[in-house]
Amino acid sequence: MIIEFPVTVDFFGHSVLIHPILESIGIFIAMRYYAFLRKSNKSSLTTIQSFSIIIGALIGALLGSKIVGTLENTQAFFDAKNPFLYFWTSNTIVGGLTFGLIGVELTKKIINHKESTGDLIVFPLILAMIIGRIGCFLTGIYEQTYGIETNSIFGMNLGDGLLRHPVALYEIVYLIFLWIVLKIIQKKYIYPSGYLFQIFMLAYFSFRFCLDFIKPIHSLLLGFSSIQLTCICVIIYYIFKLSQTKPKYLK
């Protein structure tokens, strides 16, 4: 099967990239999945508190995605005819997750809620990311979600005639593997609230730090991109958090 990149769909006579469509579908399905999980989960959060935390996460994620995304190529930002438009269209899930977390923690302090709220969102989040990465792959080289050239057996022509690492596919495979591992942890261990989310964050950001070495990057500091520098900070934070937690194995 030959795929012509980027993959588009006809929408009222206009050709539209399938990437944003799949991202929207992924978010919708994840929200419904989260609502289903929340119904069967006892939480001390009131509806207003839950809504406040979601708003805090969305605001943080929106800003963080664009800040870290813009820092990926600062020269392009300064060279852009419309820097605000460049900022608004720059996105990365790494910035979204990082600043979304900050938004949640700040909101929890404001509403004086100390219980961790992350575990319930882990699997809906992974599902949304998998669907979104399918869209990234189908966009080929026409968005900044492709890999560098390679002679390995995994090399694919993503639209420019060159064999490149299909990093979006790598990430999909990794996320499926991570889903399975987290499900095993969920079934075989007793752990404090928030532990599953911490494992997810450490595992994903460690993977992304490594993955970006096979992507075209623009060094921001010490040879690392803004995404990799963000990953380093999050990795250090969650190593410290997890070092304070001792889950109990269920025999």
Strand order of the largest sheet: 1-2
- Number-wise, the strands total 6
Strand content: 5-15%
Poorly predicted regions: none
**Rg, nearest Å:** 19 Å
What's the layout of helices and strands?
Blueprint: E1 8-11, E2 14-17, H1 18-39, H2 47-71, H3 74-79, H4 83-89, H5 93-110, H6 122-139, E3 156-157, E4 163-164, H7 167-188, E5 189-190, H8 195-211, H9 226-243, E6 248-249
Antiparallel strand pairs: 1-2, 3-4, 5-6
Structure commentary:
There is one protein chain. The protein is mainly α and about 250 residues long. The chain is about 60% helix and about 5% strand. It is built from nine helices and six strands. A two-stranded antiparallel ribbon has the order 1-2. It has a two-stranded antiparallel sheet with strand order 3-4. A two-stranded antiparallel sheet has the order 5-6. Strand 3 and strand 4 (about 165) form a beta hairpin. Helix 2 packs across helix 4 (about 85-90), helix 7 (about 165-190) packs antiparallel against helix 8 (about 195-210) and helix 8 runs antiparallel to helix 9 (about 225-245). The longest helix is centred in the first third of the chain and has 25 residues, at about 45-70. The chain is globular and about 55 Å long. The mean pLDDT is about 85.
Summarize the structure.
The chain is mainly alpha-helical.
